[in-house]
Amino acid sequence: MLSKILALAALLGPAAAQVVGKETTETHPKMTWQKCSASGSCSSVSGEVTIDSNWRWVHDKDGYTNCYSGNEWNSTICNDDKTCASNCAVDGANYSGTYGASTSGNALTLKFITEGEYSTNIGSRLYLMAGADKYQMFTLLGNEFTFDVDTSKLGCGLNGALYFVSMDEDARYGTGYCDAQCPRDLKFINGEANAVGWKESSNDQNAGVGQYGSCCTEMDVWEANSISTAYTPHPCTTVGQHRCEGDACGGTYSATRYAGIKDFYGPGMTVDTNKKFTVVTQFIKGSNGQLADIKRFYVQNGKVIENPESTIEGNSGNSITEEFCKTQKTAFNDQDTFNDKGGMAQFSKGVAAPMVLVMSLWDDHYSNMLWLDSTYPTDASPDEPGKGRGTCDTSSGVPSDIEESQASSQVIYSNIKFGPIGSTFKQP
Q1: What's the pTM value of the predicted model, to 2 decimals?
Q2: Catalytic residue numbers, as ranges
């Protein structure tokens, strides 16, 4: 059995004590994307994807005993975090059969519920890689990122999210995740387990919350289903990945998401979510060399569609600028957490450095995704600025319901392009 275990110090960085299991051969699905030049010419890049380690089978390195089962750690194997990491192996993945993730050419399909041989999988989170052991890194400042997406099979309560985070480059088995919410549901952080003090979720049979969280700058390029969409920059006071502890992690998962235009995006609307469309996001550099503007375009049926102008009084504009963020907080009567974390100047440091591309599909055990597609908080008026986020009922999105009724849901990301401003699509 030991001959089947490969010690891999690079799995979680130089200090890692984890090992990699070899019961399931790890073969990354291949996925091409395009790198474009200022002239507008694009060349194909051979990439691959890997699934996050949180989804993988974790077992004792000398056998088949689960280190983590359901939403509980094995207290015998994992009596402390460092020992747990050295005793437990993170295994390879059967991408299609277990996790419902498959690629074809330049497309990645993520299925919501997959009935595997040994378990039922719910959602997934994958990363684009530059090879077997390194994530593909993208420096967004001064560039634009374009992709096609099909959200036609994503109903209320689901989120097909594509975004960038300031993770470290070196990894193999989907390790090292972080984001601006400082998630504490990660099984391993900084080469150690997150087992001590772990509290099982009361409404998620696969998850819990540990003592530690993992923080970094995050750019939500795309959070969406067929009803609503949002794109949001999240600065952190420390740009790169770092571990936090307990309440100091903060990380409100839903209270600071905001409303928008109600007749622009959806089935049969200007951007028709019954059909595939293209999403373009530009990270425009100002004269001072810092990020000045994040602009959004859509392309569908050969037509370029600009992001609509805000209809909120005192909060004009159709893109994310420093001024837009400030006036939005005032209009919505919200705490200005964006500028509390350093605002556009601090966020600019994140997109000026390489970031990792994340592609995911998930449901929300914290607030039923109402912050994205319904009225939130639920006792507010949908006509109040910042409260009406979509047409889904406030009773929708309960994970136990949609995991049964929307089990066949899926999202498809495809035709990724990256390059200087104006290189990935024809501007109006």
Answers
A1: 0.93
A2: 218, 223
